[in-house]
């Protein structure tokens, strides 16, 4: 395929590049891919997939149609970090989240009146009911073997109730660890 | 990835009790509540308590809710754990039919509306005894809603009036239980046993319709009786089969509800009443002193009878509910409206379950009153004690004595003996048949009622001897020979000349009768003695 040939060419230069003028990697890739695309239609037997439209069919949604912008406050960031044990790390991470929310806001344009929300694609399948018999268990060894720390057939966990360090402490910790 | 971000930050929110430290109570006003009398007392006449209960009842099934491992109370740690219970990747939940039937039956018994379509959700929080990080529950659309728990308790000045009350039940939902954690403070670690993880629970959410500990205790007792009668839960609070958390607040009637606190760690009905009463008292005192009630979780310490704050939650808990993607909606059917092609083993018919409902405690109480003509408070006692109603019915069927007489013996003599030695009805030393025999002898006039009581106590000590034998041995037979009685009565009257002066005085007569009975060791026929004495004293 054309694509892989381009990449292979990139890795093994066909002819020695001039020493003066170092080309950056990104420019090399752009250069090659342009060459690949331009050369494709004339000499390929590649049939365009009918399921893929030739021109984009979507229009970007105008700002006025969207609900007001949601800003993620530092308190909310804190709360999310605590609830989901995620780490936003820095402002860029938060901005990424805000952009993702803005992107999802486009769903508000769709009219869902009189439409029942769908939980999952399984909602029309029947729920299997199992008879009340015992056919599992009695495998303490199996279940315990993956645990790092066990004590006499019990799993060992740190004591409950370790709160996340407060925000000031956390940012201090991050400062030290930031690369 | 920067591994130095404090290594692994293990954050655990506290939805349940963990470390309970007993603080020094010097600064706390220790006011012991009288536990023998748990009456609804308002500390401050205007304020009243508002109590709502959250009950978790462990479903009495052989296997767990979503997996095929066994439900058992005490087994070697982690021996009843399947791969799904341990939340190993690649495992999926498979719903247990028996649990669905149990929830439907409980809903019907509590007058709920059964939702023919109910949905499962995930409730997320982190805790070591819940390896998945979420609990499968039914928050949006539970299996049963809008019910009513009707309970009665003995009230009134003499505590012999049966007062009927009711609590609205908001919803009943199926959910998973979590494992058990044992805290080892010395080594600063927690030991986790997942045997209980995944066992089916019915969560009954009730509206805050109660106002004191006594009502709550009576309601939970009634719920226990109902669940035991249905067979859906064994209702043993000490074994954790029935767990109750109380939401307590105080306010003045007419004003909006006050801030509520949640009281946990209650493991018996008596403690429930104590804990609630203490918490109401505490809140009232706090408000009187100008303080503010915090929205927190408090643990009940049974040794001191006080509620102690647990490490408070950091703000309100957010469980991030989301639909359970691995379980389609649960559909229930009614006979005659089942779509074609469905396997019968996949169909739960609500009307069939309704037909299988046994006699509920409330109905039984009424039936006992109607059928046997006993007083409502006696009927209440019969149903309240395990097995007492059955005992009573056995005796009534085996004896010629009237139920009204039998009930006296059962509720007074038998029950007091049992209570003295802390025995259950099925451990009674006098079997139902033996009591029936004794009552027959009483009916036919072989023994007086006073003597019969003595015989009963003898039977209790020597259950292998029959009533007749004891009567013979101890010569407790009824003394009805007129001549003998006349002589004894004469003797008594003569030895109490000052009493006889007042003619036809009932009190005097009773006193003389008492003397005669003392002489005859309770064997004298009371009817005859009374007649003879009346004759003697009136002349």
Automatic annotation (TrEMBL), chain A:
Predominant place of localization: mitochondrion
Do the record's keywords include Metal-binding?
Answer: no
> Keywords, A to Z?
ATP-binding, Ligase, Mitochondrion, Nucleotide-binding, Protein biosynthesis
> GO MF terms on file?
ATP binding; glutaminyl-tRNA synthase (glutamine-hydrolyzing) activity
Q: Which InterPro entries match?
A: Asp/Glu-ADT_sf_sub_c, GatC
- What is the role of the protein in this entry? Allows the formation of correctly charged Gln-tRNA(Gln) through the transamidation of misacylated Glu-tRNA(Gln) in the mitochondria. The reaction takes place in the presence of glutamine and ATP through an activated gamma-phospho-Glu-tRNA(Gln).
Q: Which PANTHER family match?
A: GLUTAMYL-TRNA(GLN) AMIDOTRANSFERASE SUBUNIT C, MITOCHONDRIAL
Q: What is this protein called?
A: Glutamyl-tRNA(Gln) amidotransferase subunit C, mitochondrial
Kindly list the organism's lineage: Eukaryota, Metazoa, Chordata, Craniata, Vertebrata
Gene of this entry = GATC
From TrEMBL, chain B:
Q: Which SMART domains match?
A: GatB_Yqey (SM00845)
**Mind telling me which GO cellular component terms the entry cites?**
glutamyl-tRNA(Gln) amidotransferase complex; mitochondrion
Keyword list (alphabetical) reads: ATP-binding, Ligase, Mitochondrion, Nucleotide-binding, Protein biosynthesis
| Record's subcellular location | Mitochondrion
**Residue stretches making up the Asn/Gln amidotransferase domain:** 390-536
Please give one Gene Ontology molecular function term for this protein.
glutaminyl-tRNA synthase (glutamine-hydrolyzing) activity
This entry's Enzyme Commission designation comes to 6.3.5.-
Q: Which InterPro entries match?
A: Asn/Gln-tRNA_amidoTrfase_suB/E (IPR017959), Asn/Gln-tRNA_Trfase_suB/E_cat (IPR006075), Asn/Gln_amidotransferase (IPR018027), Asn/Gln_tRNA_amidoTrase-B-like (IPR003789), GatB (IPR004413), GatB_C_1 (IPR042114), GatB_Yqey_C_2 (IPR023168), Gln_synth/guanido_kin_cat_dom (IPR014746)
State the reactions this protein catalyses. L-glutamyl-tRNA(Gln) + L-glutamine + ATP + H2O = L-glutaminyl-tRNA(Gln) + L-glutamate + ADP + phosphate + H(+); L-aspartyl-tRNA(Asn) + L-glutamine + ATP + H2O = L-asparaginyl-tRNA(Asn) + L-glutamate + ADP + phosphate + 2 H(+)
Give the GO terms filed under biological process for this record.
Answer: glutaminyl-tRNAGln biosynthesis via transamidation; mitochondrial translation
Q: Which family is it part of?
A: Belongs to the GatB/GatE family. GatB subfamily.
Q: Which NCBIfam families match?
A: gatB (TIGR00133), PRK05477.1-2 (NF004012), PRK05477.1-4 (NF004014)
Subunit structure of this chain's protein: Heterotrimer of A, B and C subunits.
Please give the function described in this protein's UniProt entry.
Answer: Allows the formation of correctly charged Gln-tRNA(Gln) through the transamidation of misacylated Glu-tRNA(Gln) in the mitochondria. The reaction takes place in the presence of glutamine and ATP through an activated gamma-phospho-Glu-tRNA(Gln). Allows the formation of correctly charged Asn-tRNA(Asn) or Gln-tRNA(Gln) through the transamidation of misacylated Asp-tRNA(Asn) or Glu-tRNA(Gln) in organisms which lack either or both of asparaginyl-tRNA or glutaminyl-tRNA synthetases. The reaction takes place in the presence of glutamine and ATP through an activated phospho-Asp-tRNA(Asn) or phospho-Glu-tRNA(Gln).
Designated name of the protein: Glutamyl-tRNA(Gln) amidotransferase subunit B, mitochondrial
**Organism per entry:** Denticeps clupeoides (denticle herring)
């Amino acid at each position: 395929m054309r694509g892989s040939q381009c990449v292979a060419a990139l890795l093994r230069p066909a002819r020695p590049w001039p020493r003066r003028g170092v080309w950056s990697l990104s420019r090399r890739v752009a250069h090659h891919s342009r060459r690949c695309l331009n050369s494709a239609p004339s000499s390929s037997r590649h049939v365009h997939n009918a399921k893929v439209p030739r021109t984009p069919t979507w229009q970007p949604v105008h700002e006025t149609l969207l609900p007001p912008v949601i800003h993620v406050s530092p308190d909310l960031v804190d709360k999310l970090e605590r609830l989901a044990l995620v780490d936003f790390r820095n402002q860029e991470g938060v901005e990424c989240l805000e952009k993702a929310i803005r992107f999802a806001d486009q769903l508000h344009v769709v009219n869902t009146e009189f439409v029942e929300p769908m939980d999952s694609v399984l909602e029309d399948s029947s729920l299997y009911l199992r008879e009340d018999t015992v056919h599992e268990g009695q495998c303490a060894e199996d279940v315990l073997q993956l645990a790092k720390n066990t004590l006499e057939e019990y799993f060992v966990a740190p004591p409950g109730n370790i709160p996340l360090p407060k925000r000031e402490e956390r940012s201090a910790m991050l400062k030290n660890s930031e690369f | 990835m920067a591994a130095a971000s404090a290594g692994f930050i293990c954050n655990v929110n506290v939805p349940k009790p963990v470390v309970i430290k007993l603080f020094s109570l010097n600064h706390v006003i220790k006011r012991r509540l009288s536990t023998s009398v748990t009456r609804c007392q308002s500390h401050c006449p205007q304020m009243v308590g508002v109590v709502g209960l959250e009950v978790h009842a462990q479903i009495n099934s052989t296997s767990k809710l979503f997996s095929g491992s066994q439900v058992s109370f005490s087994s070697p740690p982690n021996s009843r754990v399947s791969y799904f219970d341990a939340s190993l990747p690649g495992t999926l939940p498979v719903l247990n039919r028996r649990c669905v039937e149990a929830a439907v039956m409980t809903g019907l018994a509590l007058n709920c509306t059964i939702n023919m379509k109910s949905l499962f959700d995930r409730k997320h929080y982190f805790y070591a005894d819940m390896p998945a990080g979420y609990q499968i529950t039914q928050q949006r659309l539970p299996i049963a809603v809008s019910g009513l728990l009707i309970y009665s308790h003995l009230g009134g000045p003499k505590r012999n009036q049966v007062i009927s009350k009711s609590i609205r039940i908001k919803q009943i939902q199926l959910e998973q239980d979590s494992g058990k954690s044992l805290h080892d403070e010395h080594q600063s670690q927690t030991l986790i046993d997942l045997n209980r993880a995944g066992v089916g629970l019915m969560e009954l959410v009730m509206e805050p319709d109660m106002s004191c500990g006594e009502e709550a205790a009576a309601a939970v007792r009634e719920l226990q009786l109902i669940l035991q009668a249905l067979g859906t839960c064994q209702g043993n609070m000490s074994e954790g089969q029935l767990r109750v958390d109380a939401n307590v607040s105080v306010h003045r009637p007419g004003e909006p509800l006050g801030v509520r606190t949640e009281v946990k760690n209650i493991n018996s009905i008596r403690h429930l009443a104590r804990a609630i009463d203490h918490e109401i008292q505490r809140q009232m005192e706090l408000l009187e002193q100008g303080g503010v009630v915090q929205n927190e979780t408090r643990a009940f310490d049974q040794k001191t009878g006080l509620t102690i704050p647990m490490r408070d939650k950091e703000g309100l808990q957010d469980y991030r509910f989301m639909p359970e993607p691995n379980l389609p909606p649960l559909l229930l059917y009614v006979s005659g409206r089942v779509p074609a092609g469905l396997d019968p083993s996949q169909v739960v018919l609500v009307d069939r379950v309704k037909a299988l409902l046994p006699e509920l405690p409330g109905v039984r109480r009424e039936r006992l009153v109607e059928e046997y003509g006993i007083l409502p408070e006696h009927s209440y006692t019969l149903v309240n004690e395990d097995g007492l109603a059955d005992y009573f019915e056995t005796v009534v069927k085996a004896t010629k004595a009237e139920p009204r007489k039998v009930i006296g013996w059962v509720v007074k003599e038998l029950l007091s003996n049992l209570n003295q030695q802390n025995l259950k009805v099925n451990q009674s030393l006098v079997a139902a048949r033996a009591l029936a025999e004794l009552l027959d002898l009483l009916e036919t006039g072989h023994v007086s009622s006073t003597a019969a009581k003595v015989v009963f106590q003898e039977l209790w000590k020597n259950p292998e001897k029959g009533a007749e034998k004891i009567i013979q041995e101890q010569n407790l037979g009824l003394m009805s020979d007129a001549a003998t009685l006349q002589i004894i009565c004469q003797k008594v009257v003569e030895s109490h000349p000052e009493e006889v002066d007042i003619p036809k005085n009932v009190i005097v007569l009773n006193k003389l009768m008492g003397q005669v009975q003392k002489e005859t060791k309770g064997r004298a026929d009371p009817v005859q003695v009374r007649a003879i004495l009346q004759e003697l004293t009136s002349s």
